[in-house]
Design a protein that fits this description.
Helix content is about 35%, strand content about 20%. The chain is of the alpha/beta class. Helix 2 links the parallel strand 3 and strand 4. The longest helix has 27 residues.
Length: about 280
Amino acid sequence: MTDNACMGRGRRRGLLVALVASVLVLLVATPSRADTAIVPAEGQRQWISCRGEGSPTTVLINGLRSDHTIWSSVVRGIAQRTRVCLTDRPGLGSSPQRRGSQRTDAGEHARELAAALNAAGERGPYLLVAHSYGGLIARAFAAQRPSEIAGMMLVDAVYPGIHRTFLPSYRGDWHEGGTVIDMDASERATKGGPDLGSTPLVVLTAGKPGNGSSWADRKWNQEQRRAATLSDVSVHWFARKSGHVIQRDQPARVTAALDWLLTRQPQSRGLEGHSNQRGD
């Protein structure tokens, strides 16, 4: 082997080492924007995954007994618009079982959600997008941390007191992931609403307005209309072709509602006041 060949091989080795070193520097200097981890959260351990860029960060809150995969049809579209985080409550999906007491409530779930976001390095204010039982968690979060709420979307969400005033099958405490959800405590955690002031709000209701003839349908739609009064800047939309899981049946309605919330942020156009719109 000639000296020139040895020198050429040595030079290539040197370039390779330099290239690897440069890549390592970039990996350390540039934080990942598609982060997934199990983090400490108010004495629990909770799975969280965040992706995308932009502000405010959207937080997706699952319904009863649901894990983060319930949002699989919308999460990519949201990540193209702004940063988005998904979580699993203890005992569901990718999160370990709850430690300690197996009795919990929406207020505790809200505190654990806030702790998980903080542990993951996320910072508010947040757009909360909440499905079904997640609506009680979103309301409790807003009651606990009003300055951290940039907007809210209630996706066919349950209402405070549903365990007292709706169908017999909804009465009493609820259950998920090996835990008991204290619904009286959950109702108290929402603090009668809460009053969102001028924080933008979208209420998305499944089905056609006025199409339900049963008492349960009328009661549900009445409470959905009432939810829209939590904010002075709100819209009430219907997903006419959807069942209870709107984000799966009509994902475009969820992303359209998110666009409405994003355009009402301080860095976007000014607020336009209250309206009651009903879409497809």
